[in-house]
Design brief:
heterodimer; A: 197 residues; mainly beta; 7-stranded antiparallel β-sheet; elongated; B: 967 residues; alpha+beta; Anti-silencing function 1Bb histone chaperone (chain A); ASF1-like (chain A)
Chain lengths: 197, 967
Amino acid sequence: MAKVQVLNVAVLDNPSPFGNPFQFEITFECMEDLPEDLEWKIIYVGSAESEEYDQVLDSVLVGPVPAGRHMFVFQADAPNTGLIPESDAVGVTVVLITCTYRGQEFIRIGYYVNNEYTDPELRENPPVKPNYTQLQRNILASNPRVTRFHINWEATLDKMEDSENVDPAPNTMLPPTSMPSKAPPLGLMPDNSMDCL
Amino acid sequence: MKLLKPSWVNHNGKPIFSVDIHPDGTKFATGGQGEDSGKVVIWNMAPVLREEDEKNENIPKLLCQMDNHLACVNCVRWSNNGLYLASGGDDKLVMVWKRAAFIGPSTVFGSSSKLANVEQWRCVMILRNHTGDVMDVAWSPHDVWLASCSVDNTIVIWNARKFPEIVMTLKGHTGLVKGLTWDPVGKYIASQADDHSLKVWRTMDWQMETNITKPFSECGGTTHVLRLSWSPDGQYLVSAHAMNNSGPTAQIIERDGWKTNMDFVGHRKAVTVVKFNPKIFKKKQKNGSTPKPSCPYCCCAVGSKDRSLSVWLTSLKRPLVVIHDLFDKSIMDITWTLNGLGLLVCSMDGTVAFLDFSQDELGDPLNEEEKNAIHQNIYGKSLAITMESHLSSTIIENPEMLKYQQERQGNQNPNGAQGSGPENQTPKLTNVLNGESLEDIRKNLLKKQVETRTADGRRRITPLWISHQRCSTASQSLQPTHLRTRTGKFTSVNSIGMKSNLLLTSASKMEPMKALDSRFTERSKATPGVTSVPLTIGITPLDRVKDSSSVKEPKVKDETSSDSEDKIMAKPLSMAKRKGEMEGAEVVEKRKKGRPRKDAKMMMPISQPFPQTPVSAEKEPSRLITPVAVLKLPTPSIQKSFSTQVSTDAIAYLEVENEVSVVSGARLSQLKWSRDGREWDTLLTSRITIATGSSDIVAVACEDRTLSVFTTCGRRLIPSIMLPAPLAALHCSGHFVMVLMASATLSVWDVQKQTALVKNESLNPILSGTDATVSQSFLTQQGVAVVSLSNGKTYCFNSSLETWNLIADKQDSLVQCADFRNCLTSQDALGSMGPLALTQGRNLSAGRLASRLSSTPHHLQQGMTLAFLENQLSSALMLLSASEYRHWLLIYARFLVNEGYEMRLRELCQDLLGPVHKSSSSSWEPTVLGLRKRDLLTEVLPVIGQNLRFQRLFTEYQDQLELLRLK
């Protein structure tokens, strides 16, 4: 069974202006001491149409994790507006929090995010080019969608046991160099999105 | 009969594979498939039983749901005492759940239902052994064992007292094992498998008693489960799927000779589950009619793949009732209420049905006493009793035994009352971590949390540790003294009912929503952004259109229940440990000085070391004199003057002043002794290196390798003894003098009897092969020489065996792993004073690692503890330390009693009792170390009396002892 159970995610600073950093207070419980760190990511879905517009807002390592209940606040900068299709800037999208252990994703928490203008005038007649300074981000905190994946929690030895859960696609179709790398290419990852405004 | 299908009992339409009613009848558990995991749900029974409770919204229906199982849950079973729930699933695991008290409602994060868990059940043990799906689990009578069976063809018997210890793995089935049932008497366990066999195994030796294949040879096809059942009187075992004349049946197997002459016929498809009513019934006495004796009978429910349920009474030839079309799919499990009148059935179609019978229909259930009487009649003493140490139904046969049992209960109760006291108070002082409330911490968590950068520049957050993982008493046995505090207040606010104030008007927004929905479940194969895999639309069924139009504007309220546990408890633990290590280090440091001393406190140099003569220069001549003997041990340096305290009943002081005066070329040294104002002094012609004394004598060693012995009045007892080598250490105790020479030889004399107990015995046997040096040596009151080495080993020399015996070893893993703390009483903590305690350190490190080793199999630890205790016992014997012998004997006896080592206990008692009738050939010694063995036995017997299991043993020795006393 999963060694880490997410007990709660509280969405802080919500609703907030579009440019504010995301803040999630994550509470999780761990069954036994973890020898390796957990890796958490916040992924902003720029467009529902394509994964191409997904932005990893930030990824952090969380550790050490002894058995017990823990909490931390995961703060990540707002998405790089330059990478969001203009047509998808306003409206409903998704922000995902994922956690991986030993490179395997075991939980995915999704929230609907509604971006809208606070000014009724703008709401009625939205500008063609989105005005991000006027946008308000509202995360539907009450309705998280949680997907759990069955992963191999132990060290390499019995890796085969859970092999059916690992999608073969990345192994067969991608050259070894583009295997899930630790750091996503810089071009797509905003180092600091504040200056993008 | 009333029939009810509570529609609210469901797993959101997913199959329910198992159902079990809690022994107290207030709740029941279901197990089955969850959204993307296995699911165990605990439900309230009251709304099933009473319609008004079902309508009352204040009465919760769902008590707790657990989605910890990674795959479908095939079986849920409550322990007979109701404290635990065991679940087995397709993830190959058996989980044992326990209710965590003091934790308030909380939701399962992200679950679609917003219903809070009213009760908190936590997984306290994960039992991993099976290599395939676990199909059935069963608790033995009195919860001694838990059995699980699996598609890996094995049955594992777990020790329910010492999880995760495995008692036995039963191998023999050649197909998937799909059902288990214990004999209510405790003698057998039966299993049914896909290999067309039903096997009965003995619990005595875990061997197969019988293998029944005939009724199953025709069985074709497979059923998901084969839950068989044993009748409450133990007389009949009823199988699941069997065939008779190509018709599906439930085979009845008689306990007597395992005959298979009868079966339950009528189902059109395979029988999946059979469940006996826990009660035995007798005919309802009709008012007015004359009571006529009627034979008690059992009641049995049979569920089948044909979706129908039949209920049978063993007194009738026809079924009592058959219910067709109750479900859309196969029946998976049946459970009876403890009163025998209610019945819950679950089905693969994801629904549950409740049947309520009246006593008119089933008969009068026998009460427990009558049921026991039936067992008693058929089986004599129920075998379950011998396996259970404290059974309420065990008859106490001996008045003495009764006394001890009552004392024992009396002792337990105040403890229990004490224990509950502080725990009740804790909720009030909750919520505080290091003086800060959790709420405060949460406000500042972002600022406070430790964030670092890894070498490759990545952010790394150290999470705030807010509580222990286990909220139940699972680990309390290891840390009984630690209080667990929990929050009593909960700030949880469910955001139910927050109305949306925003409506999406654009219908075109619906399409992206589908796409977005899929993101929730789709796993990122690689880091998003890298892959440009086209998004597959509609992976998840889109029943969430509602969601899209109900994007709410939630007021941010913290949903977390701020249950926290006190963090502090971990600290003292580590502190204590560190302290222990510090002490250890200190001891080692002291010894490294290389100077053997009796006790650090006894030597108090009052002046500086003699400056003129370097130590090495002093040693040179002696090395020339004894070229053969290699100097292995350091000799003490000569001091100008020093004084020593001789600890006897009254404290005496020995003062030495070297070279007080020079008389005609000879340097004289003075030895002064004083006690309570009385004092004497004497002069010696050589410089004194060591002076020591006991309550009876004073011994002085001089530079010229002479040893002088005086009485405490200053009279010389024997002329100077010429030592073969310079002296390394000198000890006195009583009339005994022990010298340890630099040549690593040992001598011990009894100066009163003027005999040598140990004569120039070499330390080579213990020193050779190690770099160790002598770190400590002393002489016991009984004249046993003890030498401790720097490698942590301590030896004593036994003069009758003429051997060195290892009595203590600091590195010994036995010492560190032995866990006998539950055998210690409060007096014992003080009682262990003596040479053995001195060598092993007063705070014996025994068991220090024991708690950490909790994961090691219990039988291993049991063995280590046993070996350790036996070592202690024999060491105390070797050291002639009577009080310690008695101390360890009692601990040993308690351990044997607790762990049930009957043979050893018997041997121990036999040795202590000795032959009842005197015979000249007997070599039995009535005393050991001056203690009368039979007195020891009278001390041991009450210990034995605390375990009912040994009441025969107790009675046997109690009677013999009484007999001897009368003689």
